[in-house]
Design brief:
The complex is a heterodimer of chains A (110) and B (155). Chain A is built from four helices and four strands; from the N terminus they run βαβααββα. Chain A is α+β, with helices and mostly antiparallel strands and 110 residues long. The chains are: A alpha+beta (110), B mainly alpha (155).
Chain lengths: 110, 155
């Protein structure tokens, strides 16, 4: 079976930690930097680096604010980020579907 | 945007990546709604409404209840703000639009039902009755929503 235009993977979000971060933000309106760091189980510096790259790509919006006197950073996906992740998921799903159609046995994710 | 034609990733890796994304989404959606939130909102709302009812001009020493109603209202706002950002995550409203409208409709119906008490007992009874019925309905809705979240998180 051939597709007219095969879906493409997005290099910017392909790394597992970036995927986790984008997936986490996809599931909520906005998340605190610390909540994202705790979920991804990486250091502050790593999250900063990833967020910086995703922000440059226009996928993540960073908002600085305060809770009381404590500075906080809030992260959210932009609409471009949501679209990019949705396309990336479609491309991944296509790979899995193609392999299944070809008779491959893939560990189920459902 | 930098994209690459598919090929450098195996089907197994693709399945694993899909699972990673799904787990991350579920983790954010399941955002820890504190167990105390539903009962706290219910009790504070009922307390606020009852205090408004008891502070009516016909009640003796009614002035006592005005600060109580104000305190309940302030605490209710604080609890809701705290709950909305619990765990550092601002979650999307869960469920379909129809399901959310149904829940809100039930809350409004419970509030209106409480006001039926105003027929035999006057406005004071209406304030107290509607506070109690809406508080109870909020409690049940909160409990039911927490249960749904827990089920989703298990998946």
């Amino acid at each position: 079976m051939t597709r007219a235009k095969p879906p493409v993977l997005n290099d910017v979000i392909q790394h597992p930690t970036r995927l986790s971060l984008m997936g986490f933000l996809m599931g909520c309106a906005e998340a605190e930097f610390a909540a994202v760091r705790d979920y991804c189980e990486v250091s502050d510096a790593s999250v900063s680096r990833i967020v910086s790259a995703l922000e440059t790509a226009g996928y993540v919006h960073v908002r600085k604010g305060y809770v009381g006197k404590r500075p906080r950073t809030w992260l959210s996906l932009t609409s471009a980020g949501r679209t990019a992740l949705a396309q990336h998921v479609a491309a991944l799903q296509a790979i899995v579907d193609d392999a299944r159609a070809a008779g491959a046995t893939i560990p189920t994710d459902e | 945007m930098s994209s690459s034609e598919r090929g450098p990733i195996s089907a197994t890796d693709a399945a694993a990546a899909l699972q990673t994304i799904q787990q991350a989404r579920n983790a954010a959606q399941a955002g820890p709604a504190p167990a105390w939130m539903a009962p706290a909102c219910a009790v504070l709302f009922a307390g606020m409404q009852a205090s408004i009812g008891l502070s009516g001009p016909s009640a003796g020493r009614s002035w006592v209840f005005i600060p109580v109603a104000s305190a309940c209202a302030a605490a209710l706002l604080a609890v809701m703000a705290r709950g909305a950002r619990s765990g550092g995550v601002v979650a999307w409203p869960s469920g379909s639009v129809a399901a959310r409208v149904r829940v809100q409709g039930l809350l409004v119906a419970a509030y209106a039902l409480g006001w039926l008490i105003a027929i035999p007992f006057g406005a004071q009874g209406g304030w107290i009755g509607s506070g109690v019925t809406l508080g109870l309905a909020q409690w049940i809705a909160g409990w039911s929503s927490a249960r749904a979240q827990a089920k989703r998180a298990e998946r």
